[in-house]
Amino acid sequence: MSAARPFTALRVLAVTATLPLLLTACGYGSDSDDDGKKSEVAAGAEKLSAGEVRIGYFPNLTHATALVGVQEGLFQKELGGTTIKSSTFNAGPSEIEALNAGSIDIGWIGPSPAINGYTKAAGKSLRIISGSASGGVKLVVDPDKIKTVDDLKGKKIATPQLGNTQDVAFLNWIAEKGWKVDAQSGAGDVKVVRTDNKVTPDAYKSGSIDGGWVPEPTASKLVAQGGKVLLDERDLWPDKKFVITNIIVSQKFLTAHPDVVEAVLRGSVKTNAWINAHPDQAKASANKALEKLSGKALPAEVLDPAWKSIAFLDDPLAATLDTEAQHAVKAGLLEKPDLKGIYDLAPLNKVLEAEGKPAVADAGLGAK
């Protein structure tokens, strides 16, 4: 497979490593926090083929499968004597770099960085092995300035980063409205202002932006400051579902330790089942994990609506990832990629069958 050109913003990364935040997966905190934290293993528990599995994720509600699964010991239960070493990331590229460098083996990540990581490495670095979350993205605006969609013209709307998942979705939505915006500069009928999620609420409060197409919990933070939800991205997708978080694995680790990968997937499937069966407990668990990672829990006025807008599932919603890649191509941020082989769902479907659940599909993008 020929290597497709990655998102335009990432061409800079071939020259310099000083821009790690281009294509963020919308997390919070530092770019990477490899604190060496390991899980506690029950005495006498038998190890799998690897003594340790290194996982990466974001301190973000859309990564709650990882947050809750680690917090509640659901992954460790499936791994037996194999320990978990957790690292947290803020930026998609830094997690992909960690995966490529062998610093992590398995990660939770958004669709845009997964696509970009796969295409940059000509399909040789990673596989998507499961879904994790859908939804959790809203267009929130200042109701004093924007009362209808047409009022967006001439306004300044934030997205997290040039070329990230929300940025691509907003650019595509703008184009479908017939409006013109230069993807690189953000200038046009609507001014797209790339603003880190950590500072978007302050930017909104100061009036330097008029709203944002942003993930949770940033969207609910804006609402708590008086913003109004003008659009929930779920309403733009069939069945109101689109991938926001995938699970990826190093192809090298998948080949060497399929039993460990399968154990992590069992933990993920059982964590998602527990989250959906015990939503209030799971929400509290995720918030407790966020407090440990960031030093501050989310207030109920932010946590409750944010949690309700995210669906936790095992299906990677592969067709929507392909659509998101097409949106990036239309925006001029990505040359048409060859995504054939980006998925390997055989281990997940084995786990789902054992749990009495239906198999999931790869939309024709399965491993060759």
Description:
It is built from 13 helices and 12 strands. The protein has helices spanning 64-71, 74-79, 92-101, 111-120, 165-176, 200-206, 218-224, 251-256, 258-277, 279-294, 300-308, 318-330, 346-354; strands spanning 32-38, 52-57, 83-89, 106-109, 126-135, 137-141, 156-159, 191-194, 211-215, 228-232, 243-250, 310-312. The model is unreliable at 1-36 (pLDDT under 50). The protein has a 7-stranded mixed sheet, with helices on both faces. A 5-stranded mixed sheet has the order 8-7-9-6-10, sandwiched between helices. Helices cover 36% and strands 18% of the residues. The protein is globular. Helix 5 (165-176) links the parallel strand 7 (156-159) and strand 8 (191-194). It is of the alpha/beta class. The longest helix is centred in the last third of the chain and has 20 residues, at 258-277. Helix 1 (64-71) packs across helix 9 (258-277), helix 5 crosses helix 12 (318-330) and helix 7 packs across helix 11.
